[in-house]
Amino acid sequence: MVSVKFWCPDAMSExxxxxxLSRASTVFxxxxxxxxxxxxxxxxxxxxxxxxTKSGRADFTQVVTPPAKAGQTTMRSxxxxxxxxxxxxxxxxxxxxxxxxxxxxxxxxxxxxxDADLEQVTARKxxxxxxxxxxxxxxxxxxxxxxxxxxxxxxxxxxxxxxxxQATPKNHESTIQSVRMGLRAEGAAVSLSKLEIFDAMxxxxxxxxERFEINPAGLGPAQFNFVPPKGVSVIRP
Length: 237
Known about the structure:
Elements: H1 21-34, H2 42-52, E1 55-65, E2 78-87, E3 91-98, E4 102-107, E5 110-115, E6 120-125, H3 126-129, H4 134-140, H5 144-150, E7 151-159, E8 162-169, E9 176-186, E10 189-199, E11 204-214, E12 233-235
Parallel strand pairs: 6-12
Antiparallel strand pairs: 1-2, 1-11, 2-3, 3-4, 4-5, 5-6, 7-8, 8-9, 9-10, 10-11
């Protein structure tokens, strides 16, 4: 079964795993002058993404590669696919479809992790479960100032048609070592194209997003409600 522990440090044993107004004004002025977010630095582009993308959804492919072991030259990766959606600042969900159905939902109060094969749901208080996780980078942060409370951010060289930012958790006890975000700027619009996540154990997880919709109509809080299916075990640590 594909592991998805990286999104939530407190859920590592269950599945796998918020910008100042003045700075935002500067970013949008730059974007207007250039008529494209692509002329901004990757940190400015990240700020545009966080400020202008109030919600979003996309298809994703995730490839998880374990750390290399002594004597091994190649590592066997695991691939999964599904759908992702979020509404800032407190709701997101990952619906893993293949090869095994799993759901991770943050409804604003509770983080739900549902493993269909195990017939098990884990429910944790969202405020305790999140923090210096990739979810904060993608879905819950509302500006750079808030994000920089949890992460050290570094602009990196553009590559593969994307602008890159590396985020390193300030919490040294985080299970995440670092996250690289690949942002695609098209005109004044910025979408998330790729996430590269390295955990403290050396595991690498790459999420590639396709058909990313910015502020799609009809996406609201109701899509992030979760009710445990009848008959499943519900664990509340």
